[in-house]
Amino acid sequence: MFVTLITLERFLVIKYPFGEYRFSTLAAYLSCLGAWCISILIAAVPFFPGHEDWALFSASSLCLAVPLDNAQHPGHIFSSVVYMGINFVMFVLLAGGQWAVYRAMSANSRTKFVGKCARKARRQEIAVARRLSVIVISNFLSFCPIAVLGLLRLLKGVEDMQRAYVWTAVLILPINSALNPLLYTLPSIKNKW
């Protein structure tokens, strides 16, 4: 959700370089607070009263609610919606946002910026948009296999998903978790040197 908010903010900065529309500090705080509240609410749903039989995290020894395990526990639809549905919606929003950022950059490149400062600011905005695209692509490459495997399990009834489940839990998710901080911070550190 935060990458979606960052994409929206980048779009506004690139589309309206003179500040006609921007996130105010209050709007940024409220947006982050809203994203945190939604995330905490989604994470807390399995612990609400009446959902004790879901057993999302105790369905396997890996303690992940990824919708790839073979058990048809009552909460498997919820985990499928979270991992496949919400991630798909976020990806569509991010891809659409990146496309809008690209269109705004190409439209603004047709207009003549005056002065060295304007060109430097433009280069910085393009660099930020590129970094954000790399983050979106890395997240897509991490969660797309989970979505495809989950859909295979739900639609085709593929039963033997234990190996895929282990590979996802041991390899794909940790690599994504390790890459995201690097993708966010390394370009900033590189620019300061």
TrEMBL record:
Residues 1-184 form the G-protein coupled receptors family 1 profile domain. PANTHER family: G-PROTEIN COUPLED RECEPTORS FAMILY 1 PROFILE DOMAIN-CONTAINING PROTEIN, GLYCOPROTEIN HORMONE RECEPTOR. It is found in: Membrane. The gene is LOC101853139. Signal peptide: none annotated. Its main location: membrane. Keywords: Leucine-rich repeat, Membrane, Repeat, Transmembrane, Transmembrane helix. The keyword Cell wall biogenesis/degradation does not apply. The chain crosses the membrane at residues 26-48, 77-102, 132-152, 164-186. This is Relaxin receptor 2-like.
